[in-house]
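Supplementary Text 2. Reproducibility record for the structural model of the 195-residue chain.

All settings were left at their defaults, and a single model was retained for analysis rather than an ensemble. We include the record here because the model underlies the residue-level annotations in Supplementary Table 4.
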Amino acid sequence: MALEIRGLFMKKRCDWAGTDPLYIAYHDEEWGAPVHDDRLLFEFLVLEGAQAGLSWITILKKREAYRQAFDNFDPVRVAEYSEEKVQALLNNPGIIRNKRKIYSAIQNARAFLDIKSEYKTFDQYIWQFVGGKPIKNNWKGTKDVPTETKESSKMSKDLKKRGFTFVGPTICYAYMQAVGMVNDHVIDCFRYDEV
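Retained model, structure tokens:
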């Protein structure tokens, strides 16, 4: 359990938050908090796909560059990206320059918009996998937290059927954690009861 001392107050955090200020801020302010904003849900979908095979801190450090490069994650604009835009992204040192991941973001934007046209919001669609409310887990330690669940497997299967890529069960579970569909803060973490 990571600790932070400010005056006499000690904050207990999930171990993974470590000591990097960016990671700590992400843990304290975002991770596990329920997200219902479609633009932010799309942002996390793209970022989780970009993270595949890399550390999350790598993505966090590039997040602002991603926002600039991907038009603040506007799915309408991303869905219309041309080959010239793809080449510009492949030459952008601020993001992960992986062709498959860039094409995936574009394909996922198109599939995202298809879901929005069917469900009115992506939020309505994606939250159905947890019955519309967060699953509150009771993990004692980070090692107890699974990398995938039956819910993330079901989500992955449905997203793939709808044309999404880079959405395997592990990526889907990380997405669920990030957007607060599950509360995977350990029970001793100060954020456990806050989210």
